[in-house]
């Protein structure tokens, strides 16, 4: 809405993933898992706030929002909350950003069909939970923003858990749910 | 993303509800049902497209997107598709825009809790279906955009069905689901 009418604060936290040299995270690899890749970058910053950020030296920027749960049920939510740990742990010197876009066929499914594929048949939530608290993560949504990716999935872990991370994403890519992914890029990151 | 990297077409259709004198729909009434109202306007346009529209003579603009189903199951979806009719029917000389914002308490619920309140305990989908095809409708989402309203709900109907429309929204406002509404404005419209 424009300034002439009362505006409430945004309900959602916004994130800008900014590819630029002067960033907290050093890019170790960018690889297309499915569909086209992203341009090369030497560093990546994850900038959360009430507004989107557009630094002048950005090579590219991906946008998203933290929003409500779309599939997690109350029992799952309760169990996850007892084991997961937050981002920013000092030992988390490795991270990954995995932007994902799903097909129109996925988005045209009804809610119960998507939930059945995602969890009852692909165990997406349960598989992620098995790697907690080692692999901390955060999900951002970009679809309603008209972004090129529906999801920006962010993971942080210790160097010694990099193998567990590979194992986790490998399992997710063997599922029925993953057949609906039409573009996925894996960006691996490190900080000193 | 910026222009330096490959951009896919937006997955969603965008809508701008523009309050301005020179519009298809004449505003008959604007009334706050809960929370603060919207500024007075004489006309309203519903502009759908791949981009948001910002006409120079707009008094205010509300934004949203058509997006995937969040609660409707496949059986409900199938039944709705057999009875509902599209927007723009010649006999639909009356319309209503009802922007709605729900509380943080609603959005913090897990998916299954929200579904249970919305349908199993409030019969939101079933109630809407009872008024089909007379009351045609379309739902737009604004929450992930950081808009002041989570939903922009649009209804079209014949003059003779205005009583049925009042009945429909009256029923929805008596439900458990509606207790989570913190702001709702009803804008009633007509075209000659």
Give the oligomeric state.
homodimer
Overall form of chain A: globular
CATH architecture of the domain at 65-190 in chain A: 2-Layer Sandwich
CATH fold-type name of the domain at 65-190 in chain A = Alpha-Beta Plaits
Question: Strand arrangement, largest sheet of chain A?
Answer: 4-1-3-2-8-5-7-6
User: Cα distance, first to last residue of chain A?
Assistant: 43 Å
CATH domain class of the domain at 65-190 in chain A: Alpha Beta
> How many DSSP-defined strands of chain A?
8
The largest β sheet of chain A comes out as:
8 strands, antiparallel
Radius of gyration from the alpha-carbon trace of chain A, in angstroms = 17 Å
Helix content of chain A: 10-25%
The portion of residues forming beta strands of chain A comes to 25-35%
Largest interface: A-B, 50 and 50 residues
Number of helices of chain A: 5
List low-confidence stretches of chain A: 1-6
- Average residue-wise pLDDT of chain A: 94
State the secondary-structure class of chain A: alpha+beta
The helix-strand sequence of chain A is EEEEHEHHHEEHE
Explain the layout of strands and helices:
2 copies of one chain form a homodimer.
Chain A: E1 13-19, E2 25-34, E3 43-49, E4 60-66, H1 74-83, E5 94-102, H2 104-107, H3 111-120, H4 124-130, E6 136-141, E7 151-157, H5 162-172, E8 181-190
Antiparallel strand pairs in A: 1-3, 1-4, 2-3, 2-8, 5-7, 5-8, 6-7
